[in-house]
Amino acid sequence: MIDITLRDAIILFMGSIIGLLASDCLFGDIILRFLKSMIKFPFKLLTWRYYDNKLNNTSELSRFYDINQFQESRMAMNCNIDTYWMNFGYWEKRRDDKEGIIIISGIVIFPQACSRMAGKLAEAVNMQPGNRCLDIGFGCGDQDIWWHQHYGVDIIAVEVVPSQVAVAKRRVRDLGLEKRVQLMLGSADDLNFARATFDKIVSLDSAYHYRTREVFFSKAYALLRPGGSLGLIDFVFNNRKSSLLQELVKTCASKFFLVPKANMVSMDTYALQMKSAGFCNVRIVDLSEHVFNGFYEYSVNQYKRYSGLIAPRAFIQLRLVGMAIKFVGRYTNIKCILATGDKLSSK
């Protein structure tokens, strides 16, 4: 197992000070925000209101996830200009004795891990050919294209970031899929669709941003046809009481990852909220052991193999983000979950 060493700590410090202060990439911006928070944090811990006030409209999310901010980081992760996958991926590992580094079982590139995560979600809601699916937070469209190609579903998808919508629409148009994969600019907070419209509703790594997730559950239930399913890949907290450090992590995460306070709940509360919205057969599976550590190890591998060849600054940032994810998985009570629930069939 690869651990965070003194050398890693030195890279974190030097990379943060030298490599990231001038960065315009998304990953660098995240780390820079975190460093600034360490200075400002004591003055803003007095009230949660400060953090929620920054989330009153979609402009902050649009700026935060603007595709133009992280082209270099995308290349560092994907090493493939044709893909834009940016979830954390689903990983299973083995050791490559020839190179002495960890390789992900059956996966050699980041997009495959991301598509495996998308596949986990699709299987959980039992996507079938001809299903009408609503996807909230589609990014640059990789998941919707992949779901249509592998499961034959028809998709209507909503994304809040204009630059990502533009990229996704171009890619769908180039593939001739406009009639089967319909993409639009919009928000999970304002879903203007007729009731009982969809067979499946999915959210891959975005529901923690919704205002609020609990409200979204009720909207999703209304939009599903009887017998339909809701599925989410999401991040929550485990059911144990948080330590002081973990409470500080929650506070920082609320501000810097644009997560409303109301969405920072435990797995038990998450399940109760789904049931309160009307869902039955609610299931929550903890995927953390196949997410955090695998992402970290992949970032280390990418840094070792390609850091001298492609976008050096982005690879330093990738290493830093990987270390942060390793820390989250090991020392915090944040969990990556797969949550599903069904709407009862009509009698």
Question: What are its keywords?
Answer:
347 residues, alpha/beta, seven-stranded mixed β-sheet, two-stranded antiparallel sheet
Shape: globular
- What distance separates the N and C termini? 53 Å
Query: How would you name the oligomeric state of the polypeptide chains in this document?
Result: single chain
Q: What value does the average pLDDT take?
A: 78
Task: Explain this structure.
- The chain is α/β, with parallel strands linked by helices and 347 residues long.
- It has one domain.
- 46% of the residues lie in helices and 18% in strands.
- It has 13 helices and nine strands.
- A seven-stranded mixed beta sheet has the order 5-4-3-6-7-9-8, with helices on both faces.
- Helix 5 crosses helix 13 and helix 6 packs across helix 7.
Strand and helix map with partners:
Layout: H1 6-19, H2 26-44, H3 49-53, H4 59-64, H5 71-78, E1 93-96, E2 101-104, H6 110-124, E3 132-136, H7 142-151, E4 154-159, H8 162-174, E5 181-185, E6 198-204, H9 213-223, E7 224-237, H10 244-256, H11 267-276, E8 280-286, H12 292-306, H13 312-331, E9 334-342
Parallel strand pairs: 3-4, 3-6, 4-5, 6-7
Antiparallel strand pairs: 1-2, 7-9, 8-9
Helix pairs in contact: 1-13, 5-13, 6-7, 12-13
